[in-house]
Amino acid sequence: MNIRSIFNSQFYRNTFVLFSGNAVNQIILLLTYPIISRLYEPADFGHFEQVNAIFLFIVLLASLRYEYAIIIAKDDNEASNVLTLSLFLLIVFSVVVFILLLLFRSSIAVMLSNPKLELYLFWISPFLLVAGMQQILYNWIIRKKNFKLANSSNILKSSTNSLGRVALGFIIANPISLFLSRGISFLLSLLILVRKEIIPFFNALKNGVISLPGVMSVAKKYKDFPLYMGGGVILNRFTTSLTPLLLSGFFGLKVLGFYAMANTALNIPISILRNSIQTVFLQEASELKNKEKKISGELLKITLLLFTIGIIPTGLIIGFGPKIFSFILGSQWELSGTIASIIIIWLFFTIVATPSMAIVPVVNLQQYYLILQTILCITRIVVLFGTYTLYGELKSVLYGLMLHGSLFNIFNVIYVMKKTHQIEIRNFEA
Length: 430
Description:
mainly alpha
């Protein structure tokens, strides 16, 4: 493996473009957060976060995951029909959600023990519509390899949200200001993409590239996305959310606070890198497949590169986690450093497995993805309850989580590589 050639590759440059944009977002967030936290009351964020939690869950299915088929479609004509299908489903879904909120908003507010929530739930529908459109067009831009525009859209969305909270907070600091800044950030991020793609879209519509038979055809061709990817994504979100909830039940809110600090501190750079790699490699792998070229070689090279460059920072956290957290955050956060030194191995293997997860839809392993997430969810619960029941101490539970997550990611890498190689052999022999 020639590491220098990989660093000079288009993949590395495109990944760096998206990574740098997401890093700028985090810097803006860190700079504005001390101001935002002083402008707003905790209750304001409480109202916002309840609505946001519902929105983040629902938006996963806004287009039934068809938007990801835009990237892997065999040509631009097919991708245009997938884009149209995604937009249609999004509009229908947003209307249905609005009607359901109209009927059941009072019940939802009572269930969440927040009567005032009834006033804010209607923000979900416009959020769904605008954020869903932004994601659909974002995937189209990624398909066209316009990573600089995608990066600009991301930066605009995050910076507008953070700076908007500050500006509106000085005028009147309440939940409405938080919702407005979020909505404006989605809208501006969408407009910068629409400005670039609206004319080509209407040309495709006028020239007959987009048609009802074409939309119906891609809906049938990519039916595995709503059938399997949608369920898998929901299970993944549920499993991720369940872990801290169970930890708080086992060990109390204070321990959860230490875990949350460790997990957040590690996941800020890791999630940025993982999302950037996944987006770029999905596009690259799709392009290779559509050109009838092999993917497995690139998959192996990128995976080995991620493993190699991740060893040193992982080793530092393992060896010096408590000292690093104590030095940066204060001695009271030493337990967070201890937690970080354990879970970093699990997070390291999530990075290594990122290319394998990215190509799941490219090599038609959506059914495998749903099965994997189902088993992951069930076994995660078994590990959490099992280690707590047997040992009753935090470190044992964390080591169980680390081993469980690491083994699942290692298995995923091996399985996807093997299946990709088998598929390529079968296709090239045919």
